[in-house]
Every structure is written in C-alpha cells, then in structure tokens.
Design brief:
alpha/beta, Rossmann fold, 6-stranded parallel β-sheet, 3-stranded antiparallel β-sheet, 10 helices, about 30% helix, about 15% strand, globular
Length: about 250
C-alpha cells in the first residue's frame, strides 16, 4: 500500500514539474535573399541586413561565384547559368521557403532565372534598379542604347571598368565574367509569371526617371502590372542609403 501511494505521489510530482509547452509562433519571420549586381558581392547589403534583422527579418546575402569574397575563384567560363544554379542551390540547401528574392542591377537576370527554376520557394521578387529579362535575352541585348560599351571594357574573358582597380581597399568591386553578360537567359516555367513582383527604380537627385539607365526595365515591369516605386538615389542605394533601403524593403514584408 505504501509503495503504491509513493508511486502515485511521484507520478503527480512528475506531472506538476513538467515544463509548460512552448507557445506557437503566430507567423514566420520574413526571409530575404539578396543577389548583388555585377562586379560586386554580398557585402553591398552588409549595412541593410542588420537594419532588417532588427525588424525581425532573416537576411541572406550570398556572393555569386567568382565575385565578392569568391573573386579568387573567378574563371572566364562562369556564365549566367552558373550564377542561377548557385542561388537555386543556396535556397535549397538552406531549405528556405516563402523567400523574398531581391536582385540588384545584373542580379535581376539571376533572380529571374531562379524564379523560373523554383517558383514554389519564392514569395515575392524585388528588382532593385535591375534588369527584367524576357526569354532569350542577355545583358548585352537588353542594355540601354547608348550605355557604356561593355566590349571595350572586356579583357581575357572579364569585364573590367575603369573603377575596378586591384589596389582599392576591401570590400571592393572586382572583374566580372563576360560570359554572364553574353549568355541568353532560358525561361520556360509559366508558374514563375504568377509570383508577385515589385520594381524599385533609383533616380539620381535632380534627374527625371526617363533619363535613368533602368527606366526601360521599370516600364517593362509596369506593363506587367507590377508596382513601380521611384526612390531618389544613385544606382547603389543599398550601400549608400542603407536606412532608406531597409525602410522601403520592410514595407514589402
């Protein structure tokens, strides 16, 4: 009888001492994966990331093959498909879902290809002063008439503009594989067209949107029914205006 009573009391004690169940979270935090532009790296979102994280975001800013901290692995045979594959695999291996996928400048080519491959993982596309390609287009065929001649910047399979210099301090722009500009994008998944998208056109102070190098891309976005946001600033607002960029992106969560 005593042993049975002891067991009952021990059982009661166990029930009482069990920790309460953890409360269920009401919502998952927004997830941002940013894809930088040509010559750059994930470092260009380094100032924006902590501002968004302070607002509850999860921010990933990978650098593309041959660029950023991976510049020592650069090869002339790195093409657009290489960069698309890299971001697709990044999202899959990190097991990310409901991704807000941002592409800056050349990064618009990459995120368009990623959305075509894994549309089920993407919640929204954000084009930040970026290319919006159609199937079969490349950077070389889509660029604005009168834009700087990329061919004159090319050397040994890389595009090296005048501002890309080896003696600059880190973080810095580095030579960009030319093949990523000449490769046409291949788009064949109609599900990608159903992903909501937003275009952000950055316009230098005192200039008109029509004078911006990416105005045609913004007009293409508008024709698709996407919201187009005009932001005052130069082409790299994510590096030079991190607070304003973070505030704008936070409104898209």
């Amino acid at each position: 009888m005593k042993s049975r009573l002891l067991l009952v009391l021990l059982g009661f004690a166990c029930v009482v001492l069990l920790p309460a169940a953890e409360p269920t979270t009401a919502a998952h935090p927004p997830v941002l994966v940013s894809v930088h532009g040509a010559w750059a790296g994930g470092w260009q979102m380094k100032k924006v990331a902590p501002l968004l994280e302070a607002k509850g975001w999860l921010v990933y800013r990978p650098s593309l093959p041959g660029l950023g901290e991976h510049f020592h692995t650069a090869r002339a045979d790195i093409g657009l498909a290489t960069h698309i594959d890299d971001i697709v695999n990044f999202i899959l291996f990190e097991n990310l879902h409901d991704v807000i996928l941002l592409g800056h400048s050349y990064g618009g080519m990459v995120i368009t290809g990623v959305a075509d491959r894994i549309p089920e993982r993407i919640r929204r596309l954000v084009y930040l002063d970026a290319f919006v390609p159609e199937n079969g287009e490349s950077v070389m065929t889509i660029r604005r008439t009168g834009a700087p001649e990329i061919e004159k910047m090319a050397k040994d399979g890389f595009v090296i503009p005048g501002w890309v210099k080896p003696d600059k301090p880190f973080p810095k722009d580095v030579p960009h594989p030319l093949k990523t500009f000449t490769d046409p994008i291949v788009l064949k998944n109609p599900a990608a067209a159903k992903i909501p998208a937003t275009y952000i056109l950055t316009v230098d102070k005192g200039k008109q949107p029509e004078d911006d190098d990416f105005f045609a891309a913004a007009e293409r976005a508008r024709a698709r029914g996407w919201p187009v946001i005009i932001m005052e600033g130069d082409h790299v607002v994510n590096w030079r205006q991190p607070e304003a960029t973070a505030e704008l992106l936070n409104g898209l969560r």
